[in-house]
Design goal:
This protein has helices at 2-27, 259-265, 479-511, and strands spanning 37-43, 46-50, 67-70, 73-80, 88-90, 97-100, 104-109, 112-116, 121-123, 129-131, 137-143, 150-157, 167-168, 175-181, 195-202, 208-216, 232-242, 266-270, 279-281, 283-288, 295-299, 327-332, 340-342, 348-351, 361-369, 380-383, 396-403, 408-413, 418-424, 426-427, 436-439, 442-444, 466-469, 471-473. Helix 1 (2-27) packs antiparallel against helix 3. It is built from 3 helices and 34 strands. Helix content is 13%, strand content 35%. The chain has 3 domains: 2-53 and 61-82 and 477-514, no CATH class; 112-168 and 397-463, no CATH class; 175-394, no CATH class.
Length: 515
């Protein structure tokens, strides 16, 4: 009689355990990255009242099965539905990250690594990428500051807002070009100032300047003007302007360009190979085909006046000495700076402009033409090459952070620079269901889950996984399934309680036999 009572009690306990699990699942229905649990039951031991016997051919009797009485039920396993992804919730926070696949984020607290599917991260006051809930550091690989390559040696906390990452280095301008049309009949070409064009550029420290150029179709100024041959135009460096102060670096007291001052900053280096120095100065001559108006090249002098035109094979007829194809250079020069800085008492304090930061700037002109444009020339200078490279940059301040699908963290700067700061590493396990839940959306390894090697892996390396920024993985709790399980659990608990009450009634009847 007592066996049924104990079976009923065992049934109540196991159904209560199942109800505890269901309650926890429902409580975490909106918990980021939560994985639902489910309970499976197993039988308790059996009491054998009669052993089984086999068939006996001598007596002609068949076999008899064992007689066993079960002693109730117990909790067989509490499994985590860890491989089923939760629903996606869009947050538009760049550091809210969702993992697709079976990987886990690696986080560290107190020198110990843990694992999580909850990708709600933020940048803390020290610049570390961390969990919003408990401040655990997100682990990953660091980027080499020089090569920008990811060093996948071991995982370490990702510090994305360090002082060295707050600014992007400036870059000196190395390429530039002219584009547009020179109309030989435009009045600008015969003015004393000429057809003025400019190219903005940066030195190696990020200071900005503007080089002003003047294009004319005569050699001299004032009364000594000498017209150049058709298709030949003189290009002069007219001035260098400091972009910060808007002050000229080369104009003399009379407001005229000072050639000596110009050469302290830049001067053309002419030659078949740019920079060979076969001819130097502050002027060069642009040559155009007199038939189709295409750019032919440049030379440091007019040489013998010739009528330029292309030969049968595209060559330049009567090519002048020192003629080049399509580029010339503005060369860095050394010497005392043209401007000095004084304090309020008139004492010299420091030199204001130094030429040490300038580098050679190649200037291309092969996209310019000498065409009829209604007596209007449109020559314009542009920094960088034709693909927009080597334009130079000022010092950049960080303006944003983004995370791509592979977990690489990119910093954007207001000077157009983009830099890789590191990469979020993830972990995978042979048996993820064997991980131990320790609270706070964290898991720890166990002997049945597999170990973490301390290096991690790229989330995309399995061909399935990826990270999605601005999205969080919510819980995978299915409320309809949980409510159904709740009903069956309630009925099971109710039925087991009836076992106890009925067994008690039978015991009462037994005690009444003495009356």
């Amino acid at each position: 009689m007592m066996r049924s009572l104990f079976s009923g009690v065992a049934g109540l306990r196991t159904h209560q355990t199942r109800m505890d699990v269901i309650g926890n699942n429902i409580a975490n229905v909106n918990t980021v990255g939560f994985k639902a649990n489910n309970v499976t039951f197993q039988e308790l031991i059996y009491q054998t009242t009669s052993n089984a016997s086999g068939a006996n051919n001598d007596t002609g009797r068949g076999g008899v099965n064992a007689k066993q009485i079960g002693l109730g039920v117990s909790t067989g396993a509490i499994n985590t539905n860890i491989t089923t992804p939760g629903s996606s919730q869009t947050t538009n926070n760049p550091f809210d990250l969702q993992i697709s696949g079976d990987s886990f984020f690696i986080v560290s607290g107190g020198g110990e690594n843990f694992f999580t599917r909850a990708g709600a991260f933020y940048v803390d006051g020290a610049g570390n990428l961390a969990m919003t809930s408990n401040g655990y550091n997100v682990m990953g690989w660091q980027a080499d500051p020089e090569t920008q390559e990811i060093r996948k040696d071991t995982v370490s906390p990702l510090r994305v807002m360090s002082p060295e990452n707050s600014n992007a280095d400036p870059e000196a301008t190395k390429e530039s070009y002219f584009k547009g049309i020179i109309d030989k009949n435009s009045t600008q070409l015969t003015d004393e100032s000429g057809l003025v064009s400019s190219i903005s550029f940066y030195d190696e420290k990020g200071f900005g300047y503007v080089a002003k150029f003047s294009v004319k179709n005569f050699n001299g100024t004032g009364d000594d003007k000498t017209d150049l041959p058709e298709g030949v135009f003189k290009l002069d460096i007219a001035d260098i302007i400091d972009s910060s102060t808007n002050e000229s670096l080369v104009l003399g007291e009379n407001g005229k360009p000072n050639s000596a001052a110009i050469e302290k900053y830049f001067k053309f280096a002419a030659g078949d190979t740019p920079g060979t120095g076969q001819g130097t100065g502050t002027s060069i001559y642009l040559y155009y085909d007199t038939v189709d108006g295409s750019f032919l090249g440049w030379t440091p002098s007019t040489s013998t006046p010739v009528s330029l035109k292309k030969g049968p094979d595209g060559e330049v007829a009567n090519k002048p000495a020192g003629f080049s194809a399509d580029k010339f250079q503005l060369n860095k020069q050394t010497g005392d700076p043209a401007i000095k800085v004084y304090d309020k008492d008139g004492n010299e304090k420091a030199t204001g402009i130094s030429t040490d930061g300038f580098v050679n700037i190649n200037v291309a002109a092969d996209t310019t033409t000498m065409w009829d444009n209604n007596q209007t020339s449109t020559l314009a200078g542009k920094p960088g090459d034709y693909d927009g490279n080597y334009m130079g940059r000022k010092v950049g301040k960080m303006s944003g952070l983004t995370v791509d699908q592979s977990g690489k963290i990119f910093a954007s700067y207001d000077n157009g620079t983009q830099r890789v700061l590191g990469q979020i590493a993830v972990a995978q396990f042979e048996n993820p269901s064997g991980l131990e839940k320790i609270g706070e959306n964290l898991y720890a390894t166990t002997q049945n889950s597999g170990d973490f090697d301390g290096i991690g892996m790229d989330v995309t390396s399995d061909g399935v996984g990826k990270l999605t920024a601005g999205v969080l993985e919510m819980s995978n709790v299915d409320l309809s399934a949980e409510f159904t399980d709740m009903i069956t659990t309630q009925r099971g608990f109710q039925a087991n309680s009836r076992i106890i009450t009925v067994s008690d009634s039978m015991l009462e009847e037994l005690t009444n036999l003495k009356r």
